Amino acid sequence: NRLVLATRNQGKVAEIAAMLEGVGVEVVTAAELGLPEVEETGTTFEENAGLKAESASKASGLAVLADDSGLSADALSGAPGVYSADWAGEERDYEAAMARLQREVEAAGGDRGAAFRSLLILQWPDGRRVLSRGEVRGRLVFPPRGEGGFGYDPCFVPEGESRTFGEMSAEEKRRFSHRARALDALRAELGL
Ligand code: ITT
């Protein structure tokens, strides 16, 4: 009962593996299996999650779970969105990405509204797919705060909170997160 996490992002791996504890699947990662990296040429979360799911499925012959996600700023009409990882560049420099976000949001009038979104695709070896989405609204804070989580977590405060995702424990982030909501929706869909 193995499930491949079709991601190279260790932050996603940690969160998804923790959320799947007790579900009765053995989680293996794309890196552990030496699966090829995928070029994310899509322009939507759905397309990119589909590319990752298809590639890992073909290469492993196992059931796979892919996540495509990102942070969308209201002031920037949804950017960086699908391009959230691109903003961090090859070096995965999220301090630079958050500094750019602050500059662009301020230049665009300063609206701090934002949302994290996650799109999950579970794909079986026969090609069958189930797709689910999760979202959390909140606001951007600068300078970023906290060492927890990954990516843009230090500059995002979910609605109803005063701390950033970066200032929360993994368990606390999970109470709000787009990824937890998408995975809950997926489990509901599957009756798990
Ligand atoms: P894989 O494609 O291998 O899964 P990736 O990091 O490139 O890894 P994406 O293409 O989906 O993943 O890019 C999503 C980016 O959005 C990710 O790199 C983070 O910067 C950001 N992001 C998504 N979920 C996040 C979260 O829970 N906390 C902080 N940042 C997040």
TrEMBL record:
GO molecular function, one term: ribonucleoside triphosphate phosphatase activity
Domain of life: Bacteria
GO biological process, one term: purine nucleoside triphosphate catabolic process
Annotated active site: 68 (proton acceptor)
Organism lineage: Bacteria, Pseudomonadati, Pseudomonadota, Alphaproteobacteria, Parvularculales
Catalytic activity, as annotated: dITP + H2O = dIMP + diphosphate + H(+); XTP + H2O = XMP + diphosphate + H(+); ITP + H2O = IMP + diphosphate + H(+)
Subunit annotation: Homodimer.
This protein's GO CC annotations: cytosol
Family annotation (CDD domains): HAM1
Family annotation (InterPro entries): dITP/XTP_pyrophosphatase, ITPase-like_fam, RdgB/HAM1
Keywords: Hydrolase, Magnesium, Metal-binding, Nucleotide metabolism, Nucleotide-binding
EC number(s) stated in the UniProt entry for this protein: 3.6.1.66
Residue sites binding Mg(2+) per the record: 39, 68
Details of cofactor binding: Binds 1 Mg(2+) ion per subunit.
Name the UniProt record assigns to this protein: dITP/XTP pyrophosphatase
One Pfam family matching this protein: Ham1p_like
Required cofactor names: Mg(2+)
Role description: Pyrophosphatase that catalyzes the hydrolysis of nucleoside triphosphates to their monophosphate derivatives, with a high preference for the non-canonical purine nucleotides XTP (xanthosine triphosphate), dITP (deoxyinosine triphosphate) and ITP. Seems to function as a house-cleaning enzyme that removes non-canonical purine nucleotides from the nucleotide pool, thus preventing their incorporation into DNA/RNA and avoiding chromosomal lesions.
Family of the protein in this entry: Belongs to the HAM1 NTPase family.
Primary enzyme class: hydrolase
Chain sites annotated for binding substrate: 7-12, 69, 150-153, 173, 178-179
